[in-house]
Write a structure and sequence with these properties.
Blueprint lengths: L1 H8 L5 E3 L21 H6 L16 H6 L4 E3 L4 H8 L7 E2 L15 H21 L9 E10 L5 E2 L5 H13 L3 E12 L8 E14 L5 H9 L13 E9 L1
Helix pairs in contact: 6-7
């Protein structure tokens, strides 16, 4: 089940992504009608963004099965939930991981670090949910993690404040090409009565990104004011190109 989900979500083979840059350095994005969420709320996933409405569901037997089973997203990220809802998995349960995400980065490459963090998130939620006796066991548990690495090798994670957010974006703009790593891990109970009793699969995406050098500090400040984190689709508007490489 976990392997099938990756083939459905990701597909096969590498792909090249061309991101259209923002050519106007003088025009800043319009401010939101409501006050932006706090950084604490953004980290917990308590944000609200407009929806483009439901899409017609994919008519696949495996997806039809998942729509009747317990599917758990081990993340409070509204964007990750939205990605799964594109498959019309409207019954997704949100069970955030309690893993502290405090691994020693010096012991891992960025690829290993993001994968291990996502794995720990997934096993954290899976072990808790599989031990429950008040509900049926989950059919699928999905977790993910994203980090950015500078050309120096420094690993950047989610910003904790406006000042930190702005400094991060300036470093990405001025530091040349950088890499974004996203790991997705899925676990499901094994159909066979054999150790370890579950199946696990993973996917790691590496994207090389270059910022549009015409982006001004004023535009970055406006961008920060609407709380776009440097991992969401809107962030790509500040970049000039991206090359995506698929790793497993």
């Amino acid at each position: 089940m976990a392997t099938w989900l990756y083939n459905t979500l990701i597909g096969a083979g590498p792909q090249n992504v061309q991101v259209v840059p923002s050519h106007s350095s003088s025009s800043a994005p319009l401010p939101p009608l409501d006050a932006p969420p706090s950084y604490e709320a953004s980290s917990s996933g308590d944000t609200k963004r407009s929806s483009r409405g439901p899409r017609p569901p994919l008519a696949l037997p495996a997806l039809d099965l998942l729509r009747t089973k317990r599917v758990i997203l081990a993340s409070a990220s509204p964007r990750r939930k939205q990605l799964l809802q594109l498959l019309n998995l409207s019954n997704i349960e949100i069970v955030p991981s309690t893993f502290k995400e405090d691994l020693d980065k010096s012991h891992y490459t960025p690829w290993e670090y993001v994968l291990e963090t996502a794995t720990q998130k997934c096993t954290n939620v899976y072990s808790r949910e599989i031990a429950r006796t008040d509900v049926e066991e989950p059919t699928l548990v999905i977790a993910a993690d994203t980090v950015i690495t500078l050309s120096t090798g420094e690993v950047l994670e989610k910003p904790s404040s406006e000042a930190h957010h702005l400094a991060m974006l300036q470093a990405l703009r001025d530091g040349g090409a950088h890499k974004v790593y996203t790991a997705v891990v899925a676990m499901s109970p094994s159909e066979e009565l054999a150790y370890p009793g579950y199946s696990m699969d993973h996917h790691v995406e590496e994207t090389v990104v270059t910022f549009d050098k015409t982006v001004t500090d004023e535009l970055l400040v406006s961008y920060v004011k609407v709380r776009f984190p440097p991992f969401c689709p809107g962030w790509a508007e500040l970049t000039s190109n991206a090359d995506t490489r698929r790793r497993r």
